[in-house]
């Protein structure tokens, strides 16, 4: 019966994918705040001004150095019209990270979790 | 005489403008305004985009000022409109220091999140929207899928395969009857 249930659900437990704090290459795995930042960047068409990104990092309680702590190929800083932009390069990675921390799409089940965090 | 006419015309215009504004307020939040005024001014859209991009965080007006690069009065005005629409709420007890959070019960907010993925898809030619919709469906409807077949099988006393097979044959009979073959 359990195999049928698994077949019906057919879902990947994304949380298990980030259970270890270090990945294969020895880099620190991004936490929930980093996942929130990456998801935010993705929903902003995959790019924002560096100054705005720094403000967002500060709002989330992260340092500016966080940008360099992401795995290589994930995000990049590009210069355009004399302004520096942060661009999301690997959108699939961003997706997986957002799914792992359940910050991909807002749904009503998260309402109680959010309330609990505030208390 | 000329001065009196001009003054009268001016006062009439003021009265008419006030009437217009009054009637505007009366239909506020009704079907007269597209999307109930969700897409108001450009500054309102900027604030809304920020909230849609990260609905999990809490925001002070200063946070939104930094993120949207707007002035604080503009941000406060835009947020007040969103509070009226019910997509954002003030969770602070102190009146002078508001802290805003997205109302996660708001379906409009979910729809707007999908819109942000749709915009990304149009720019990059990828399918993030489909993925997001699928993920949303899985997270919100997984409970139905989890217990429904098991519960039915338990009540009837048959296995899941039997129940599924029976319903399939019933469906087949219904299709045959409908087509008339």
Describe this structure in words.
The complex is a heterodimer of chains A (119) and B (181). Chain A is an alpha+beta fold. Chain A contains seven helices and three strands, in the order αααβααββαα. Chain A has one domain: Orthogonal Bundle (Arc Repressor Mutant, subunit A). In chain A, strands 1-3-2 form a three-stranded antiparallel sheet. In chain A, a hairpin with a 2-residue loop joins β2 and β3. The longest helix of chain A is centred in the N-terminal third of the chain and has 12 residues. The termini of chain A are far apart. Chain B is mainly alpha-helical and 181 residues long. A three-stranded antiparallel sheet of chain B has the order 1-3-2. Chain B is globular, with a radius of gyration of 27 Å. About 13% of the residues of chain B have low confidence. Chains A and B meet through α1, α3, α4, α6 and α7 of A and α2, β1, α3, α5 and α6 of B.
Instruction: Give the strand tally of chain B.
Output: 3
What is the strand arrangement across the widest sheet of chain B? 1-3-2
What's the Cα radius of gyration of chain B? Answer: 27 Å
Kindly name the structural category of chain A: alpha+beta
Q: Under the CATH scheme, which class of the largest domain in chain B?
A: Mainly Alpha
So what's the overall shape of chain B?
Answer: globular
Number of domains of chain B: 2
* CATH architecture identity of the largest domain in chain B: Orthogonal Bundle
N-to-C CA distance of chain A: 40 Å
